[in-house]
Request: fold
Amino acid sequence: MGQASCLEALMTPKLRSILNADGSCAEELRDLVPDSDLLAILRIILLNRVMDRRLMTLQRQGRLGFYMTSTGEEAVTVGAAYALREDDPIFLSYREVGSLLWRKVPLNAIMNQLIGNAQDLNKGRQMPFHYCFREHHIPSVSSPVGTQLPHACGFGYAARILKTSQVALAFCGEGAASEGDFHTALNFSGVLNAQTIFLIRNNGYAISTPESVQTKACSLASRAEGYGIAGVRIDGTDLLMVVRAVRDAAERARGGGGPALIEALTYRMGAHSSADDPTRYRPEEEMRQWEKLDALARVRLHAKWRGIWTDTEEESAWADAEKAVSQMISECERLPPPPVESLFDDVYERMPAVLRTQKEEYLRFLRDRKR
Amino acid sequence: MADLVQMNMIQALNNALDIYMRREATAIIMGEDVGGFGGVFRVTEGLQQKYGAERVFDTPLAEAGIVGTAIGMALGGLQPIVEIQFADFVFPAFDQIVNEAAKYRYRCGGQYGLKMVIRMPYGGGIRGGHYHSQSPEAYFAHTPGLRVVIPSGPYEAKGLLLAALDCPDPVVFLEPKKVYRSVKTHVPKDYYTIPLEKAALVREGRDATLVAYGAMMEVAREAVLLAEGEGYDVEVIDLLSIWPYDLKAVLSSVEKTGRLLVIQEAPQTCGVAAELLAEVQRRAFTRLRAPLRRIAGFDTPFPYALEDHYLPSKERVLDVLRKTIEF
Reply:
């Protein structure tokens, strides 16, 4: 083996995949996702797409402050949630609405958060995508990148000590792998033998910055070795591979085998957010290449290979999704903003006297102004 | 009458942690060198031996990781008690404290709350130079969602730490390391708390109100004794809770005396004293008989060789007291 290929082998760990280009897979791996579950996942991906398209339009019409699509990355976002137990906490980065849909978070609850209305469980305190659904084991999202990674590590330690057998999974992007929190989280997780999975959605871009600017290394998964934890690099557009990798990691962690780092290669087919224009920094040709690896296209092809999905069924699934999203929009848009009094709640469990005074003075000001 | 034991602040804090760890099986202690070694100041001495290495443990040397993982532990049902070795080293964890711990309850509409205490020794007077002497309380007091608490002596340390541990909000608990071993007082042996958000009236007086906290309480007491010798009768308040603070206690004192001085060892500008003076001048304006004054560290980095000049001294306090009362 020549020096170059040796280096290549060292620096580019094999990308693991299950689905073949024609949608087939080894017969014995079908059971990773039984037929009925595959159909449910497919419908969720369609719903995810309809939400992306319709809500982006809503944003352009000025009816929603901000939006981020996750089109193209659903194999990771839905697949990871599918592979976990229902009570395993998922620490989101932000582009993972597919996980919420698999967890059966009601559409209206998602939309209420995006709008920040009176029914929003977050009480309108955060920008769109900063979800928190405790009932569904989704802790709170914040904007600073990577901060959720040590939280997942700590949760995974608590699960071990309290013997809840939960596994915490944290998503992050490849940009977040440059943050100090990424390093400390992985390092602590190894030392603490935390029941934690770190899942990098490596979609190629942090807003406009390509992965090549984040790191000189060819693989982020290889960092696992430096922390003494398991690491694997997978095809993140391959639903079955995502399910297998997350399930393996979860089972190992639950059994006391320690944390894992999964790097899932995928592609952000849309913009970073509604405030972005990707045509300014990435070539059309690159986007076209990735369309062949679109999560939806691949899952659809696989379902057809299994003989469980037809064009007619897809048509009716699209129509169902459109209807559900229309209903969600019309019901949630009608709701008022949170009451002004709520501005002062939940800073502390009990409102301190100093804050109560501020609240009273402001409400008095509002009353006097009306007169 | 509860049994009283002579303790210094280290012993009082250790005793509080011991009582709490015994009571709450989900409480854990984590930080650099807090395990078998008992911490560089020995506050956690003997606790790992007593409660095991899963509940009292050393962490990698990374403050952001310590606080970040502690937040996750709190979300997962544990109650972390974090030690940051020196307050000067807390800044790598600033994002996790200010953006995560402080805002968690608010940003999720109260679905989660973080019950955790972050302890750290702070302050000057030990020849520690820039990085073993700072008083960062104002940074944290400026952050809604955090509670900031500073005890002045062993009795206060135990009662306030137990109150902080019972509190459902994240508490930044700053310990004046100059006082760690410098005084011993009578401390009840059993569980007791000193309520948060309450200041302590330490000495009654007619001529002026002197507010201080932490290691500056000792300076305040000495200055007041000197002032007494000159015929001035000064009221002294130990603030204890830096934020949210007990404005009512300060106001009712100033309404009586008409004069207010606040001591802080942190740099003067944008400090805790400024906040108190602003609120008092607004709410007690018609009762004031002299300009409100603060005696603070200078707006320089904390010095090494000249720290005695930097730190507010009893002489400086006495000078301002005289000028205020004779105004």
User: Anything to note?
Assistant: Residues 109 and 327 of chain A are 13 Å apart (CA to CA). Chain A touches chain B through 49 residues (CB under 8 Å). Chain A has two domains: 16-338, 340-371. The first strand of chain A starts at residue 90 and ends at 91.
